[in-house]
Structures are given as structure tokens and as C-alpha cells.
Amino acid sequence: MTATPDLGTPQLASPDLLRSAFRRHAAGVAVITARGADGPVGFTATSLTSVSAEPPMLSFGVGTGASSWPAISTAEHVGVHILGEHQAELAATFARSGADRFGAPTGWRDGHAGVPVLDDVLVWLVCRVVARVPAGDHRIVLAEVLVGDPSRAGRPLLYHQGGFNGLRD
């Protein structure tokens, strides 16, 4: 005899349903940066995805209401930084509205094409934006990887249940 799965109480699609579902989904944490008209901008993203190996391409989502969106909407290049488990505070800084994201203690430098590159991350990549695809109140940015450094040792920072966590064995 086959057991019928407990389907619980289904909810109609809503922003709360989607948020609740994705709180249960562990995701890697990245910071996206760009050079804006008034200086560097950046935000924390958990939507980073590998898209293509040839050419090397990735994607991430950004809300059109985000303070970084005006710069991202016109940037030719972006920085993508995969954070290590020791960088929960950095992730929180770049996620916090109104924070001075590039002030102390954030370490960074100008990289390829003037893109802000963060210090001490597991991986940094500088990418050329190839498309911005409308997706509801967000845009999916497709970007081709131009240069990067994946050589730093460490374990990734994860986002799960509304908080930043490290991997557990």
C-alpha cells in the first residue's frame, strides 16, 4: 500500500509564500558591485547562478527598487564576490539599507574596468553585462566572466532561514 503524502494546507501564490519557501532553501552568498555615477555601489545576492561554461557566463537577480539598481541598470561591468563563512558581517553590511557599504571596515580596491573588488573573498570575478531581463519587480542580469581569482581557501557563507551560516559536515 502506498502512503499518501501529507500535503498540509496549500496557500495561493503570494510574495509571502515565495519568501517562506525560499527561507528553507540554502543559498550561497555573493556581493555584487559596480561603479556608479556617485561612486561604488553593491548589494548582497543569493540568486547567483552559473549559466554557461562557453562562454563563461553567470546570472543574478536585482530588485528594481534597490538603491544599487540605477548603477547596475547602466553598468557595463560588475564585480561578483563569493563570500566565505567568515564574512557574515560583510554580507549583512551589503544587505542593510542605508549602510556605508564601502566605508571601514570594508576592504576593497578598483579592479578591471574600474569595478570595485572586495578584499578577502573566496572568489572575485569581473564580468561584462550582456543582458538585463525583466522578471517581475526584478531584473535578471546576465554577465560574461572576463577575469577573476578563485584561489582563496575557505568554506562558503550560506543564507538559510533568514540568517547567514557556515557549512556543517
Automatic annotation (TrEMBL):
Instruction: Print the keywords alphabetically.
Output: Oxidoreductase
Q: Which residues form the Flavin reductase like domain?
A: 22-166
> Is Translocase given among the entry's keywords?
no
Establish whether keyword Oxidoreductase is in the entry.
yes
Question: Can you name one GO molecular function term for this protein?
Answer: oxidoreductase activity
Q: What class of enzyme is it?
A: oxidoreductase
Quote the Gene3D superfamilies the UniProt record gives: Electron Transport, Fmn-binding Protein, Chain A
The family database entries (InterPro entries) matched by this protein are listed as: Flavin_Rdtase-like_dom, NADH-dep_flavin_reductase, Split_barrel_FMN-bd
Q: SUPFAM superfamilies recorded for this chain?
A: FMN-binding split barrel
Q: What is its EC number?
A: 1.-.-.-
Could you tell me which PANTHER family the record lists for this protein?
A: FLAVIN REDUCTASE (PTHR30466), FMN REDUCTASE (NADH) RUTF (PTHR30466:SF1)
Official protein name in the record? Flavin reductase family protein
Species source reads Streptomyces hyaluromycini
The organism's lineage is: Bacteria, Bacillati, Actinomycetota, Actinomycetes, Kitasatosporales
